[in-house]
Design brief:
alpha+beta; 16 strands; seven-stranded antiparallel beta sheet; Umud Fragment, subunit A; 253 residues; 3 helices; 2 domains
């Protein structure tokens, strides 16, 4: 069962806000010195609403328009992001959207090649995915034997020095955005092919190239499903393990 936190937070904010407004206009319990003038249940509801409304409104605004925390649930973005990483997502990077409906109300920018983004899975918008932007609208992506060719230009790929993973590490350069990727089998890929990115869509891939369900499987991501840009790690924690303090504050490359 997936809990819609945005819907719950929005509903609570609206409810407490309406209660506070009604009290100021109609009930006016704060101005009445008589304890018996209003039912105790009403007074209690008003008091709680006055206390929680500012807090709920603040959290709703920050979560909807500024930053939202996410937890990395899998290893599809290794070695950039590890399972158990908690990250901040910049919600205003690609436009300001209303909570719940996700309707864009203000245009602020578009993803660039190499950005690590969070988006809602087009096949099931209740699920959030995190991947790296490879292709922009109108691009032609060729993926063959672990090498990327974008609009006829082969992206630079070199052997990396990090040997702390089960798969070989390579350093990939996406138009100046340098980052590490994992390649399980450098000589073989199950999803080689040519992909053309439709207008208004983005082609995304995981940095753990052979263990990522990305645009090679789910297709290009429509702009309307973008949530924001992943910018920093604020915690790394897996149950029954000590937190990895070294990852706290790391910028996501």
């Amino acid at each position: 069962m997936i809990i819609n936190l945005a819907l719950i937070l929005t509903a609570l904010t609206l409810f407490t806000g309406v209660v506070v407004a009604l009290d100021k206009v109609i009930w006016k319990t704060a101005q009445d010195d008589s304890r018996n003038a209003a039912p105790s249940a009403l007074r209690t509801m008003v008091e709680y609403s006055r206390s929680f409304f500012p807090v709920l409104l603040f959290v709703l605004v920050i979560r909807s328009f500024v930053f939202e925390p996410f937890r990395i649930p899998s290893g599809s973005m290794m070695p950039t992001l590890l399972e158990g990483d908690f990250i901040f997502v910049k919600k205003y990077a690609y436009g300001l959207r209303l909570p719940v409906t996700e309707t864009k109300v203000v245009e602020t920018g578009n993803p660039e090649r190499g950005d690590v983004i969070v988006f809602r899975l087009p096949q099931d918008p209740s699920i959030n995915y995190i991947k790296r932007v490879i292709g922009l609208p109108g691009d032609e992506i060729v993926y063959e034997r672990q090498r990327l060719k974008i609009n006829g230009e082969t992206m630079d790929l070199k052997q990396g020095a990090n040997a702390s993973y089960d798969a070989p590490v390579f350093v990939e350069d996406l138009d100046g955005r340098v980052h590490d990727i994992l390649v399980t089998n450098p000589q073989f890929s199950t999803r080689d092919g040519v992909y053309r990115v439709p207008e208004g869509h983005y082609f995304v891939m995981g940095d753990n190239r052979d263990r990522s369900r990305d645009s090679r499987f789910i297709g290009a991501v429509p702009e309307k499903y973008l949530v924001g840009e992943a910018v920093r790690i604020w915690m790394h924690f897996i149950p029954w393990h000590a937190p990895d303090w070294d990852r706290i504050g790391m910028k996501i490359q």
